[in-house]
Specification:
By secondary structure, the protein is α/β, with parallel strands linked by helices. The chain has three domains: 2-102, Rossmann fold, CATH 3.40.50.11840; 108-214, Diphthamide synthesis DPH1/DPH2 domain 2 (Rossmann fold, 3-Layer(aba) Sandwich), CATH 3.40.50.11850; 225-331, Rossmann fold (3-Layer(aba) Sandwich), CATH 3.40.50. Helix content is 32%, strand content 20%. It is built from twelve helices and 16 strands. The protein has helices at residues 10-20, 31-34, 38-48, 108-114, 135-144, 170-173, 190-199, 216-236, 255-267, 282-285, 301-305, 317-323, and strands at 2-3, 6-8, 24-28, 51-54, 77-81, 96-99, 101-103, 122-127, 148-150, 181-185, 202-207, 212-214, 241-247, 271-277, 293-296, 314-315. The mean pLDDT is 93.
Amino acid sequence: MEIAGYRLDIEAAVATVKQQGYKTVAVQVPEGLKHSIVPLVEYLEKQTGARILLSADPCFGACDVVNYELRNMDVECVIHLGHTPMAAVENFWMPTIFVNAFSTADASPVVEKAIPVLVGTRVGVVTTAQHLHTLDTVEALLQKHGLEPLRAEGDERVSSQGQILGCNFSAGTSIADKVDCFLFIGSGMFHPVGLAMSTRKQVIAADPYTNTVKKKEIEEMGDALLRQRYGAITVSRSAQRFGILIGSKRGQQRITLAYELKQMLDEAHKHSVLMVMDEFSPVFLQGFREIDCYVSTACPRIAIDDYLQYKKPILTPIELEIVLGRREWESYVFDEISP
């Protein structure tokens, strides 16, 4: 089935639901598919005969499976659209069917446009879940032009070769010393900028949706991001009371890390409190007036993407180490979640 420019193998999910005899099924969908999701829900209802409950909550990835409380609504299975499963993030409480959304955009034209911009001959090829099916074609194009593409496995959090996540660049960092640059297939700036900061290598982004190639923009955004993070660290050096934020979403829980950060703050004679959140929003933190600074152990993008929305500094764990003098600014790296 195709919706909103994406191809989803929903037929396989239908077969599983029918085979298992599920009577009530929840469907979880990312923001980009919500405006076209109703026909898919109707298709599921018709083909399976099951009652379909569509989750209207935000969905940020495979780390963010629907709430445990759905069991109280007799939900027996979750169909999670738009993301690939994380082996390191098992959904223990309910069967979950992951249905990736493959973009129908042709990546070949923009890859051809990107080839003259690439650095060196050894090219690391990476992408997001939506374009994984294009990588064989991308590699063939690179080889046609005398280049040597390299695609690598990530850690247990990553399901496919060459796939990077907003919280995990292991498919890139594992081969950083073997390539001259990286070619990222996809949209947005966060993934290529994060990859560049994690690998210290040139990243060229090829966007199949807009047919644009970005190189200088990635460098400029990376520099701007570093300036922003340096400012957050500088402001936080005088903080005395820290709120250590722990994400309750299964794939974002780093409780052990939170305890370690609290120990660091105790040893630095700083006050801290452990705070658990499911949905992160500046509004929910406004009432804690005694907190000077927050440290997020949940999704790394919270401190980066939403920084300007928070009235008080919000740091990553690595940035807290710099604040406390346990790490030098020169060794700054992007925060990632590993198994």
